[in-house]
Amino acid sequence: MNHAKIRLDFADTSTRPTPGMRRAMAQAEVGDEQRGEDPTVNALNERVADLLGHEAAMFLPSGTMCNQVAVSTHCRAGDEVIAAANAHIIGVEGAGAAVFAGSFVRGIETPTGIFTATDVATALRIPDIKVPRSRLVAVEQTNNFGGGSIWPREALAAIAQVARDNGLAVHMDGARLLNAVVASGVSARDYAALCDSAWLDLSKGLGCPIGGVLAGSRAFIEAAMVWKYRLGGAMRQAGIIAAAGIYALDHHVDRLAEDHDNARHLAGRLGQIPGITVEPVATNLVFFDVAGSDQSAPQLAERLVEQGVRMNPFGATRMRAGVHLDIDRPGIDEAADLVATLVA
Ligand SMILES: *Cc1c(COP(=O)(O)O)cnc(C)c1O
Known about the structure:
Layout: E1 8-9, H1 19-26, H2 39-52, E2 56-60, H3 63-74, E3 79-84, H4 88-91, H5 96-100, E4 104-108, H6 117-123, E5 133-140, H7 153-165, E6 169-174, H8 177-184, H9 188-192, E7 197-201, E8 212-216, H10 218-230, H11 239-251, H12 256-271, E9 277-278, E10 285-289, H13 297-306, E11 309-310, E12 312-313, E13 318-322, H14 329-343
Parallel strand pairs: 1-11, 3-4, 3-5, 5-6, 6-7
Antiparallel strand pairs: 2-8, 7-8, 9-10, 10-13, 12-13
Bound molecules: pyridoxal-5'-phosphate.
Residues 62-64, 67, 88, 140, 144, 173, 175, 201, 203-204, 212 line the site of pyridoxal-5'-phosphate.
């Protein structure tokens, strides 16, 4: 692929720290994080624990590590995790649940990534010497490959009930939890406190360069600490990056509403292009299908990159455009005009 300079990158992981965030990072008080002596990391952990309605939280270098530490803490070898078939934990984490936890993830087929308490009840194994032990239900709020869809609180509560009744824990991959919060008006705590563990990503729409924060009970976080060390996630003067997280929680949460507005605008513009079908937009992710045009998603993606615009192909005809704080309304119009030209 021709790597022209990308002017408009429609991935919410492509955000750069703002000048204000960089100042907060430069001024951060730091200490040895491994010893629990970094005041800025400790402040971030307390802040996120409170935000998510849990006793404790743990700063980690990435969202992927939040998922892997959580699965490894909840599960032992031979256990089974239940998740949507399109889950990040299944498709794009290098089979980490199998590698680290020795666990199998069973996928429930659902296009939006939202499943029901009945789906969970059906997927439960009847305990027997021959079968995996059903141990964990993992949900994604919002569901990335399901179009940024939002789990309704009631659906989550129903699943938590079935899980609890059957001795399973519930884990929330909250990479974009705050997008769900801003779009729905339901608090982060009202979603996350239903789960035994939950995390949010600092490096997606919140605009930080790195990091995720995993929350749970004090006992869960203590047990998770072993996995943080084991996987190499224990850091040293990590306050310098934790400061970006605190800054983002202060300054970059409410503004996610702008991203959602812009995503709807982008969807509207793309929907007017003949040959393109746009999926419903719930938050900051816009998925669209180019099957009605004369090119595949990878072909269109490559031609966009040649013009400095990046939108990622997901399969033969499906594409994703994520809106974030480095993409404004004129940028969206420019990208939509370009797609229209390339598809015509
Ligand atoms: C991005 C993402 C992750 C992984 O987060 P990283 O910080 O990129 O490791 C996990 N789950 C979902 C749903 C994501 O979108």
